[in-house]
Specification:
iron; three-stranded antiparallel beta sheet; 107 residues; Alpha-Beta Plaits; 4Fe-4S; two-stranded antiparallel ribbon; 13% strand; 21% helix; 4 iron, 4 sulfur cluster binding; 4 helices; alpha+beta
């Protein structure tokens, strides 16, 4: 099993999760993070670190967020690893309260 980053991360992109990942499985896009399912070791450390509660175990991804499982796998092949925490976007707190923002995902 792997962990999956879901919609709340879009345009928030807090990187607290990156700091605790022992295997550097996070990949960074312009305004979203994903987890590489081939690298994730199911350690659970990232879940508690996400301030917007965007990370779920694959088996626990909410029904309306299931499409993020294949999306994480797809984008993990395209995006570069992120191994150090970065500042969140200046408007991240505002975006953390927004739902239905898949159309805002930049590839």
């Amino acid at each position: 099993m792997t962990y999956v980053v879901t919609e709340p991360c879009i345009k928030c992109k807090y990187t607290d999760c990156v700091d605790v990942c022992p295997v550097d499985c996070f990949r960074e896009g312009p305004n979203f993070l994903v987890i590489d399912p081939d690298e994730c070791i199911d350690c659970t450390l990232c879940v508690a670190e996400c301030p917007v509660e965007a990370i779920f175990a694959e088996d626990d991804v909410p029904a309306d967020q299931q499409h993020f499982t294949p999306l994480n796998a797809e984008l993990a092949k395209l995006w570069q690893p992120i191994i150090e925490r970065k500042d969140a976007p200046a408007d991240a707190d505002e975006w953390s309260k927004v739902s239905d923002k898949l159309d805002k995902l930049e590839r």
